[in-house]
Structures are given as structure tokens and as C-alpha cells.
Design a protein that fits this description.
This protein is of the alpha/beta class and 573 residues long. It has 22 helices and 16 strands.
Amino acid sequence: MSSFLLGIAASNGIAIAKAYRLVEPDLSFDKQTMDNPGEEVSRFQAALSTSKSELEQIRDRAGQELGADKAAIFDAHLLVLSDPELIAPIEDKIKTENVNAELALKETADMFIGMFESMDNEYMKERAADIRDVTKRVLSHLLGVQIPNPSMIAEEVIIVAEDLTPSDTAQLNRMYVKGFTTDIGGRTSHSAIMARSMEIPAVVGTKTATEEINNGDMVIVDGLKGEVHINPTPELLEEYKRIQADYEKQKSEWAKLVNEKTVSADGHHVELAANIGTPKDLKGVKANGGEGIGLYRTEFLYMDRDVLPTEEEQFEAYKAVLEGMEGKPVVVRTLDIGGDKELPYLNLPKEMNPFLGFRAIRLCLEEQDIFRTQLRALLRASVYGNLKVMFPMIATLVEFREAKAILEEEKQNLVAEGVKVADHIELGIMVEIPSTAVLADQFAKEVDFFSIGTNDLIQYTMAADRMNERVSYLYQPYNPSILRLVKMVIDAAHKEGKWAGMCGEMAGDETAIPILLGLGLDEFSMSATSILKARSLIRKLTSSEMKQLANEVLEMSTTEEVVEAVNKAVGDL
């Protein structure tokens, strides 16, 4: 039966495919007394055999796509499944206690997990995690329940999940994943940002997608309106195929601007840059005519792994991006971990309010070994392109000075070692804390540039968690208070002859672009897929008229008034 969900349009486009639920399965069961333990042992062996062949497939694919080191994890899992020390006690328990295989498996596995976890040895603790993973897989086969594995998807699907972590999203194969929908999240949640960088339609914050959509349901994700249609009627399906074709036609019109400069109707040039997470994203940047990288989120190098990346691994990643951009500017943000981005292997204490806690530059200034390794890699890579380094979450001038001093120290060390480093590397900060925006005139005397991180600046200014749907109405990019802070930052930069960019999602927002052009923003950095659409819009705008619009909206009282004024000024451009 056809049904419909409304959520938040997080990534443009229309996707039509079968649903693939990326949801933790229910692995609960009851204890049972079995009349025929022999049959129960056979059932256990069959589940064991299926698990082995599944792991072999996953290992082989991981080897091809992710490299031998990632595949080695699954070799360890296969060894566990062949270990008589684990298997024999499970089979003995079934035979001697006449219990169901599920109970024998769980009790035996829990005993080994408890034993290994209590040992003061990192290797043994890792074995406990391996046992937990593989026994969960065997249990799922005993119960006839599927454990989702996004890396094994081999047909066109739409992912349905409560939420998607950055590591979940990194595993998705663009060839098969046509779109996704989640229960929670907003336009600025990581799943939404990743969807835009992967160029796949997404609708987030539907609240009930995982309850209402079953595996294999036909689903339409309308990333233009924020709608999800489940098992649509043939008529609706046809209508959406037409909408999809029209949208693709519009995209091909925008594509004609790929090699054009971003110039307003009266000749004012601004730079349209892209936000990226990995060197693989460069392809999308070039295909969409990016004039630079305005934000390279380096934390993705640190995620979905068990140890910190080495200096060499980081150097290769930064070098690849700098070389790939062929002299165009590349703004690299230093490690921004914390908040909703955790690194389990760092064992950081849980915090009551992680968004306001020990994260980003605060973590780097305390954990200097991690910071210095990254800075050395960046400095070594600087000779391969046009590098600019940006420090995130700067709240005080003292923090910026400390971070700059550490970078200068590492630069001197490298030069002393005979390593070449670029003569001049611009150093800037992300302006995402209201105190920094208010003091922008003082920061502008010392930094080389500002990049306004509106995702956090808005949530901190409005005191509203951007991941919380119940207060999502307060996530207001066009609120005059936000616009005034943005103006303060841009004006402060220009007064000192510096440039000001924006790397938050607001930079690619069609309602915000006319105002930002009027406020004098120099660089707009956004998901690569938003660039051509933004370029098309800016070419139709007159900067002098937008300046007048910006002055008007700064005097307004509400978001609604601002939106109305923009719509009136820009109309149907």
C-alpha cells in the first residue's frame, strides 16, 4: 500500500529504488529445551558455515576496495569461527544440556568475552571484540535475521536508517546507493553533508522511516521537496520519473557553466569553492567547476580505523589534493574531532555536552603529538600546491597564537632537517563561536583570512542543538542576528585587507546567497554539487542591488521578513 513521509530536504535530486534497511536487527531469543540435540548441532554448524562464506565474501571485497589492512580484520574473524576452543564448548553445551543453539552460543561467547576483557592486554581485548562480532553474525543466521552490511550492496538501493554515521556513509558504494532517508538529522547533520558530497538525494528527519519502510519496498526519495513515498502507485512513479528527467535536464544546463568564472551581472567576481572530506571527492569538485577547496575536513582521515593515521599517510592525502587542484587554493581545516564526531581509539571521556566540550583546537592544543604530526604532514605537502591552513573552533586570540606558534615551530624543525616547505602559507580560523565573530576586528589584525562556519555559529548563537528536531525551527540562517554577525566578520576582514569566506551550509543556500553577495563575502564554499546552481544564480544578480538588499534585511526583526524580502528582490531568477 502506498504511503508518504515528510522530512527535511537534505540533498537535491530524485532517487527511485528498493529500500535497504541499515538498522540493527533484533537478536533476542528465549531459552528452549530441545528434544533432538543432534539436529540443533547441525543447525549451529549450518549457521557457522553460512557465516564463514559471508565473511570470506566481505574480506575479498574489502581487499579489492579498501586494501589488505582492512581485509585482515575479516581474516581474524574467520580464525575465530574455526577455533575449536570456541566451537567445541558450544556443541558440548547443546548436547549435554539439551538447550537451543542460540543459548549455547551466547553463554559460551559471553564467557570468553568476559575473560578476554578482564585481561590487562590490548591484544586480548581486541580478541573479545572479534568474538562479539562473529558470534553476533552466527546468531543472526540461527534466528534467520539479516545483519546489514552496506559494503556488500550489489544492486540499486535507497538506504533507510535511523541516522548515518560518517563511517557508515564512507562505506556506501555510489554505484548502487541512489539515495537515503533517515529518522533523525537536519540539513547540517553529517549524513546530509555527505549525501551532498556524494551527489545522492537525501531526506532526513522523517522520524518514522525505519518503522514504516521494509526491506525491498519501492521507495521514492524526493530531495527537492523533502518527501519520501513508499510503494508509490504506478501513476506517481511515472510522474516522478518525469520530475527526475526534468531535474537532470536542469543540471545539464548548469553544467554549461563548469569552466566559467563566478561573476555577478555587474561584473563583481567571487570565488565558488567546494567542501570535501577525502581526496576521492576531487572528481566531483572538478566536474562541478570548483574554483578551489574552501574546506578540506581532515577528520575523515582519522575515522573508520583503529589507530591514528601516520604522518606519511596524511602527507600523501594532502599532497594528492594539492596536486589535484593544480595551483587553485586549498583550505585545509586541522583536526576537528569531538561533538558528534568521535574517535573510539582515543578513549576520550564522555561529556555532558560534547558540542561545547573538549573538541577541535582544544583537543589539538592539549594532545600536541596528534596536532604536530598533522602540521608536519601539511607543511611537507605545502610545496605541491596552494595550501591555506585553518584552525577550527577558535574562541580566543590566545588559542590562535598558540596554534600558530606550534605550526611555526614545526616549520623550523622541518627546514632544519632539510625538508622543503612553501615560503608563505596563509593561516586562518573558522569563525563558528559568537565571541570570535564579535571580536573579529581584533582577530583580523593577526589572521590571514576568516572562514565562517555557519553550521555551528547558528546553533551556538541561537542556543539550539542543530541535531535536535524539536528545536530545529531555531536553526535560522537568515535570522538578522546571524546576518549581523556575518557582516561584522566580513567588514573586519576587509578593513585589514584580508579575505572572508564561508564554509558552512549557508554558503550554498539559494536564499542566503543574494544577501551574502550584498554583504561582500569573497569566497563561498559548499558541497560540490551546489556550485553550478549557485554560479547560475550569482550571474543573474547585480551586486549593487544585493548590497541594498543586505542593508535592508540587517534592519529587519525576523527570519520570515528576511525571506520575504529576498523573494521579492530576487523573484523568479
